[in-house]
Amino acid sequence: MSRLPFYLLVGLLLVAGIGLSVHRHISLEVPWTPGEQREVWEVEALVNFTAQGGPVLVNMALPSHQQSFRMLTEHTASPGYGLAFLEENGGRRAQWSIREASGSQQLYYTTQMLATPDARPVPTEPPALGGDIIWERPYDTAAAQVIERAWNRSADAFTFARELIRDFGDERQGENSRLLLTQFERGQLLVRLLNQAGVPAREVSGLLLEDARRRQTLSQWVQVFDGERWALFDPATGEQGRPDNLLLWEASGQAVLEVQGGTNSRVTFSMLNRNQPAAAAVRSQLAEDTLLNFSIHSLPLEEQALFQTILLIPIGALVVVILRILVGIKTSGTFMPVLIALAFIQTTLITGLVGFLLIVAVGLVIRNYLSYLNLLLVARVTAVIITVIAIISLFSVLAYRFGLNAGLTITFFPMIILSWTIERMSILWEEEGPREVLIQGGGSLLTAVIAFLAMTNPWVRHITFNFLGVQMILMALILLLGNYTGYRLLELRRFKPITED
Amino acid sequence: MWNWTMGNWTSPDKLRVKGIIGMNRRNIRYIGRYNDRRLYPLVDDKLKTKLLAQEHGITTPALIGTVATQFGVKHLREMLRGHDGFVIKPAKGSGGKGILVIDHVEDGAFVKPSGVRLTLKDVERHASNILSGLYSLGGSPDVAVVEALINFDERLAEYTYEGVPDIRVIVFLGYPVMAMMRLSTAASDGKANLHQGAVGVGLDIATGSAIRGVQFDRTRLDHPDTGHELASLHIPDWRTLLLLAAGCYEMTGMLGYLGTDVVLDRDHGPMLLELNARPGLAIQMANGEGLRRRLDLIERQPSGVPPEERVAFAQHHFARRSELETSTEATAEAV
User: Fold this and answer.
1) What is the pLDDT of residues B135-173, one digit of tens each?
2) Integer angstrom CA distances of residue A41 from A247, A272, A281, B294
3) Which of A53, A159, A272, B233 could form a disulfide with A42 if both were Cys (CB 3.0 to 4.6 A apart)?
4) ipTM, interface predicted TM-score of the complex
């Protein structure tokens, strides 16, 4: 009888459970603890233009997942316009269209970006060089000289870019640079020069995030590729590196905004910084559920709330398993304590305990009378059920009259389970005496309270709800516990006399 | 504080040295491995056990009748006519629940061993409760079994209070491995259940003499009610009893880990009362020894050995010397 398949199964469950959880933690930024705060930026882009009375096509670049930022949600507000999201040349774009529009038009786009220091870096596909670059006289000689000057003072693509940009800086601006700047816009010029020197580069647009700023515009940046990775340069200073608060809005070298059928188009941005609890930040993740990212969050909110409770039941059951197998506590009804603990979640602990004791005590007294009536079992238990309902109703009304609103939650107790508990305890009392009733009743309550504490622990709630892999780990644990042949804690006490001689 | 803690608790190592088996180990290693679930109904249903025993020539208390329907309850009076003492028990009861013992009938009143008098109505109600499943596992409908009261051996009368003492023998793979006698007390209300306060007396497998006694898991030298010392307790007809217990292995179709409850009848000798596929662990307390080593030894024995040889093997290997005599000697010397 080999136990190998068993341990393989347990190992498999553990690996799968831990793997799934770690995957969720890393790829979706779901934190391990519920208290962690996450920075969320809410950015609103407002597109303004004057329509000329004919068909209008507005095409705007959109941000996507990038280093340091993860997109949570996005919305648009553009009454009357058709809207499509497009993937073009490695960048995301929104396309608004309308058959007829005139006058001033406003289109809104808002997105929530989660600031995460360790988000995945931008994928590095080697860019194509911009073909042959043709300069007109006399710019060609100027360009060649500028390139040569910077080339000699540099070692690789990045240092070359830095030197080139510095040559256009205010201090070192030479004759050639000034000449070129009269003809070209600075960012485009730099990209041209870099490309001519055989260095892949592109001009990108980014938004410097600052809390509660309005009417901001995008700033231009130059991205240079050295054969392995991209680096960002400030076209004004030549400084290399991405500022922490820079959100790249358009990162594929395309235009940010193209409007057909309108004039005076411009886009401005306003932004807001909010600190959200991590759990809430997770909840607003975009629904991009693959099989691996299988998540309860894709369900409607009401079902989510239901699942939050359902996913806690294995935790309560684990408490029961531990207390019975490892400790040896006797309970009345194996999983009755879990159901009681679930009721406690609704009623809060103290109200729940008081309510439970009241119902069971009164129930026992009435059940004691019922046993004189010599009824058949099913009829008697049914009578107990009705009695329990009567007790609950009476207590609810009394509690309400005395202004104890907490007493109303007593209705959350599982009535059938309570009736069976009363029936069992009553029989136990008759056969084994009140001591055994106290032991089993106390054991059940103790188990229920511990299960309640475990199930209401914020960390446990967070983990079970956000990491479905944990269920597999629980399963593996319970399988292992089911295999435990050692002594129970209470047996160390029970068998004590035997070791005395 | 430390002393207090240590005073009530022992360490797993000490228990392991003694060979004590815990609940988890019993469930997984013995019941789970050796007791085929398919065979459980044979032992969980006392009526089936009884009929099976009669087939295999194993003595059991005489069956007066059974009550299977609520309608049949009305016929109890006729069934009981002419029987002085009887026992009504649920066929599928557990842990001694729902067993009603009537010692004798006096002026139409049914007298329990404790002297409490019941009316026919009470007895009928008890039977009706049994039928509706009050005492059976999971509350499933049950059958009430009425059997003749055992005329238990007078030689043992002074060791017990009210109830009938029975002998529990653990039979492992057909070998009797450990035995104890359960003496009812006032505390146990005439019932032979250890956790209700009956006294358990460990019995030497070789001879059937007492080894040591326990009540509520603590050592006892005498019976709490009769005051009779336990050291002199000796079961007559011991080998026959062991043979009867060992034979239950074949009778049940090879239930490997079995608790057999046997009573001694004045006229018929050892009788099988009931079987238990989940026998408790208190027998280790009564014997002052763990089951582990004995079970390990049996597991190494070949299968297919006839009952006589198994009993001989057990009597040879599991012989013990009474602790009661040594302890009484020790106290005598001390005085």
Assistant:
1) 776 667 889 999 988 887 777 777 777 777 889 999 999
2) 10, 6, 11, 72
3) A272
4) 0.77
Q: Where are the domains of chain B?
A: 19-42+154-329, 62-148
Instruction: Give the right CATH number for A36-128+200-288 from 2.60.120.10, 3.40.50.150, 2.60.40.2250, 3.30.450.40.
Output: 2.60.40.2250
Q: Do residue B128 and residue A432 have CB atoms under 8 angstroms apart?
A: no
Question: Closest approach of chain B CAs to the CA of A492, in angstroms?
Answer: 5
Residue B231 backbone phi and psi in degrees, to 5 = -60, -35
Please give, rounded to a whole number of angstroms, the shortest distance from the CA of A434 to a CA of chain B.
12
CATH class of B62-148: alpha beta
Ramachandran region, residue B96 (left: φ > 0; alpha: ψ -120 to 50; beta: rest):
left
CB pairs under 8 A between A and B: 80
Cα distances from B12 to residues A218, A492, A497, in angstroms, run 72, 7, 13
User: What is the distance in angstroms between the Cα of A490 and the nearest Cα belonging to chain B?
Assistant: 8
Q: Locate the domains of chain A by residue range.
A: 36-128+200-288, 305-495
Interface of A with B (CB under 8 A): 1, 325, 328, 374, 376-378, 427, 431-432, 483-488, 491-499, 501
Q: What pLDDT shows up at residue A170?
A: 67
> What confidence score (pLDDT) does residue A123 get?
59
pLDDT single digits (tens) B322-332: 665 554 444 44
